[in-house]
Design a protein that fits this description.
Blueprint (H helix, E strand, L loop, with lengths): L1 H13 L4 H42 L3 H19 L9 H22 L12 H10 L1 E3 L5 E8 L2 E7 L6 E4 L12 E4 L1 E2 L21 H6 L1 H5 L1 E4 L9 E4 L4 E3 L1 E3 L1 E3 L5 E3 L5 E5 L4 E4 L7 E2 L10 H8 L1 H36 L7 H13 L2 H11 L6 H10 L9 H28 L4 H9 L4 H29 L2 H7 L19 H10 L6 H30 L1
Parallel strand pairs: 5-7
Antiparallel strand pairs: 1-10, 2-3, 2-9, 3-4, 4-6, 7-8, 8-9, 11-12, 12-13, 13-14, 14-15
Helix pairs in contact: 1-2, 2-3, 4-18, 8-9, 9-13, 9-15, 10-13, 11-16, 13-15, 15-18, 17-18
Length: 553
């Protein structure tokens, strides 16, 4: 059968115009279709199993909400692609899913963090903080014992020695030393009861003690061992793993009470969880103190209130907000003025070498922005920069561009305008081509000059279609993090502020500083500021859409 099929296909290939070739070409798609149909449901089943396994893994890891979200996402995907009712949504589903995952979810998560005290001091949940505090302990140094681990056939035995003489005092029964998740108790045997005839010399009848490398391999299992000394019932009767060479009893720092409070055993002080501060707060003699670390709690609009009510934070914040608006506005105004002027000059047909000028003026836009910023950082260097060298030679001055707040802001504007004017120039050059030449001819007949033509004809006809793009440029510079981070890093700083802030910081760089740098990683406050930035940029986007709608009318 296989030979016949092969010979038939070969014959059909040699006779492409024959009836045999036509019949074979009609039969081949049918075979492929049946094959695809046969593999369809097995492939769907494999994808479903993989999705269920992922959901199950998330649930087992304790991420219940993530598991529910993944189940909803996969369920929606199967409903759309496996049913006829979802046929109309098959092309929309990937885009909507991407928007929810990469836009809506980060926005909602950031907004939620803005209503919490999430920071480097409040990273964990209350349950995890309680577990951490209850795990704190000190070793009872007088009862610490050296140990060695010996192979006993396929199992192992622990041997505890007297720290003073090195003589064997206790041995464990045979241990498999399998890795387990929970501690397990092993009762030791006194050396005489274990039948060790040479215990006084410190020797044992098993193999030599395992090397440090082998002990490290069994460290996880040894850490779960709890060794109980025979004939003792006091707190020091249970030995815990203290390291690669020691077991000993421990003394916990805290004891949990029936009402959820923690009692510090050293002085009996009581600490209760406080839902407002996210700490275990002390009572009585310990009032005014708290236990670290703290835990994450909802604080409502506290982070937003700090922007308005906290005088020490409000001052730098309002200054940074004002500078952000001024920086973005002046950048757009200056870039537009320079770009539009150069576009008008380059549109002059009698200008020689127009192409050369256009190419040279376009170069700042062609060079990657971060390279230009770093080059300017060197040029503005107070001691070795070329700009100060020229100013010193001409006027005898060497401005402190990075130390003086006003000069630092001026430097930022100069660099940003340099990076932004080619974009406006290109846009205006294209818009100038759309202005009818008849208008300029009529203006020339009326005796108008170049300035009249610019302010009466060119600017009004350009500014209307250019307005939405200028709003977009304003929104871009509102979040121009790269320029601030590479050129000034927000410096110079404000003095005597609760949260470190720079006088050249804009909102986005200030937010980054609060979240990841000097102020102790206050994620909640940074998320609140990020939400405010989103609201402002969203308002600018709505304004942009409205201007575009008017421009198209």
């Amino acid at each position: 059968m296989n030979a016949t099929t092969a010979s038939t296909s070969a014959l059909a290939a040699t006779l492409p115009d024959s009836p045999l070739a036509e019949a074979y070409s009609r039969q081949a798609p049918g075979l492929l279709e049946r094959l695809a149909r046969g593999l369809y449901w097995p492939v769907v089943a494999l994808i479903a199993l993989a999705a269920l396994y992922l959901v199950f893994t998330l649930y087992v890891a304790g991420q219940t909400w993530w598991a529910l979200g993944a189940m909803a996402l996969f369920g929606s995907g199967f409903a759309v692609y496996l049913s006829q009712a979802g046929l109309a949504y098959r092309y929309l589903f990937p885009g909507v899913t991407g928007m929810l995952l990469f836009i809506a979810f980060p926005l909602a998560y950031t907004t939620q963090i803005g209503f919490t005290n999430y920071s480097s001091a409040h990273l964990l949940s209350q349950e995890r903080v309680r577990e951490y505090l209850l795990e704190q302990h000190d070793a009872v140094l007088d009862e610490v014992r050296d140990y060695s681990l010996h192979a006993d056939g396929a199992a192992f035995r622990l041997v505890l020695r007297d720290p003073a003489t090195g003589a064997v005092r206790f041995v464990s029964p045979s241990l498999a030393l399998r890795q387990v998740d929970k501690p397990f108790v092993v009762t030791l045997q006194a050396a005489p009861d274990a039948g060790l005839p040479t215990m006084s010399g410190g020797e044992v009848p098993w193999g030599p003690a395992l090397s440090l490398k082998d002990l490290v391999a069994h460290r996880a299992a040894l850490a779960q061992l709890r060794l109980h000394l025979p004939g003792r019932t006091d707190e020091a009767a249970t030995l815990h793993y203290l390291g690669l060479r020691e077991f000993g009893p421990i003394r916990p720092h805290f004891q949990e009470q029936a009402d959820g409070a923690l009692k510090r055993l050293a002085d009996g002080a009581i600490f209760r969880p406080d839902a407002k501060t996210g700490y275990y707060q002390g009572e009585g003699a310990a009032a005014g103190t708290h236990l670290s670390p703290g835990y994450k709690v909802m604080v409502g609009a506290q982070n937003y209130a700090r922007m308005v009510l906290d005088a020490e934070f409000r001052g730098p914040f309002l200054s940074i907000f004002s500078w952000t608006v001024v920086f973005s506005l002046l950048t757009v105004v200056c870039s537009t003025a320079i770009g539009m002027m150069l576009a008008v000059l380059l549109n002059w047909e009698d200008l020689r070498f127009r192409t050369t000028y256009r190419t040279l003026l376009f170069l700042p836009y062609a060079v990657p922005g971060f390279i230009s910023i770093l080059v300017f950082k060197g040029l503005f260097n107070q001691n070795f920069g070329e700009i100060n060298a020229i100013l010193d030679a001409l006027f005898g001055v060497k401005p402190a561009w990075f130390a003086d707040p006003l000069l630092a802001k001026t430097m930022l504007l100069i660099v940003n305008v340099w990076l932004g004017y080619p974009y406006i120039m290109i846009l205006c050059a294209g818009l100038l081509k759309a202005i009818p030449s008849d208008l300029y001819e009529a203006s020339a007949i009326a005796g108008a000059g170049p300035l009249t033509n610019f302010f009466k004809i060119t600017a009004p006809l350009i500014i209307k279609p250019l307005s939405p793009l200028l709003v977009s440029a304003f929104a871009f510079n509102f979040n121009n993090f790269v320029l601030i981070a590479l050129l000034t890093d927000g410096r110079p700083d404000y003095l005597s502020t609760k949260i470190p802030a720079g006088q050249t910081d804009i909102l986005v760089s200030y937010t980054y500083r609060i979240a990841f740098r000097d102020s102790g990683t206050d994620f909640g406050l940074a998320a609140a500021i990020s939400t405010l930035i989103f609201v402002l940029v969203a308002a600018l986007s709505l304004l942009n859409l409205r201007l575009m709608r008017k421009a198209n009318q």
